């Protein structure tokens, strides 16, 4: 195996056949240059692109730690790779450790990650949901309350269909949590879905008549 350097800081490994063309006359000089440039292109892809592909998915050890709520395992992973959460944060649409923890109901682990990398709480996964939306779906209210303490604006994060956590909560039977969200971020009442509906609109039943509990929550929204 022959070795060449395309830059002072990068060592590229080329097959031996690429360098056989050095032993040619001047008429083959252009072909030699072409072959070496092809090799550089391939090597650059191997050295640069493949690491990016590798990090398009969450590290399996980190996923297992999130599923089990193992905070110690999280810090072991970060000790081995301090930029692990940073790489996940650079992916626009991704399942983060917060999503996994929300699915598993591991709010302590979720809060640890959110404290280390708050921006992960804004990420949508491949089905268009944020960690807070998943926490609401799985009735992990401790995680919802915890995320609000980190950043109350997370109440306004828009998932698929531009549904916010407040929109989602407006369709459930949890007036206490609804009141907490409204108190933490009153401006969230202004957010609309792709159908131009606010959370107040979603309190109305399909028949246009609101139940007693819906009327109570509706008045809370309008305050």
TrEMBL record:
Domain of life, per lineage: Eukaryota
InterPro entries found in the cross-reference section: Ankyrin_rpt, Ankyrin_rpt-contain_sf
The UniProt entry, under SUPFAM superfamilies, shows: Ankyrin repeat (SSF48403)
Q: What SMART domains does this protein's entry cite? A: ANK (SM00248)
PANTHER family assigned to the protein according to its UniProt record, in alphabetical order: ANKYRIN REPEAT PROTEIN, HOMEOBOX PROTEIN WARIAI
Its protein name is: Ankyrin repeat-containing protein
Q: Which organism is it from?
A: Gossypium australe
Give the source lineage, highest ranks first. Eukaryota, Viridiplantae, Streptophyta, Embryophyta, Tracheophyta
């Amino acid at each position: 195996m022959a070795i060449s350097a395309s830059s002072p800081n990068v060592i590229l490994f080329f097959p031996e056949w690429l360098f056989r063309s050095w032993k040619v006359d001047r008429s083959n000089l252009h072909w030699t240059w072409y072959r070496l440039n092809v090799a550089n292109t391939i090597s650059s892809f191997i050295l640069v692109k493949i690491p990016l592909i590798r990090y398009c998915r969450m590290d399996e050890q980190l996923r297992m730690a999130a599923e089990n709520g193992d905070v110690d395992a999280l810090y072991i992973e970060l000790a081995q790779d301090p930029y692990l959460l940073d790489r996940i944060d650079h992916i626009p649409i991704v399942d983060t450790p917060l999503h996994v923890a929300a699915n598993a109901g591991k709010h302590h682990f979720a809060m640890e990650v959110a404290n280390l990398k708050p921006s992960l709480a804004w990420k949508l996964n491949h089905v268009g949901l944020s960690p807070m939306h998943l926490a609401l779906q799985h009735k992990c209210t401790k995680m919802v309350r915890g995320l609000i303490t980190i950043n109350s604006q997370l109440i306004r994060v828009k998932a698929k269909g531009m549904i916010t956590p407040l929109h989602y909560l407006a369709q459930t039977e949890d007036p206490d949590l609804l009141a907490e969200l409204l108190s933490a971020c009153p401006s969230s009442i202004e957010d609309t879905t792709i159908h131009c509906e606010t959370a107040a609109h979603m309190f109305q039943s399909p028949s246009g008549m609101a139940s007693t509990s819906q009327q109570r929550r509706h008045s809370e929204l309008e305050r």
